[in-house]
Amino acid sequence: MSAAEVLPEQANARQRYEVRRADLPLSCPLPAMALWNSHPRVYLPIEAEGGESDCPYCGAHFVLVD
Question: What are the residue boundaries of the Zinc finger CHCC-type domain, all occurrences included (predicted)?
Answer without folding.
Answer: 38-62
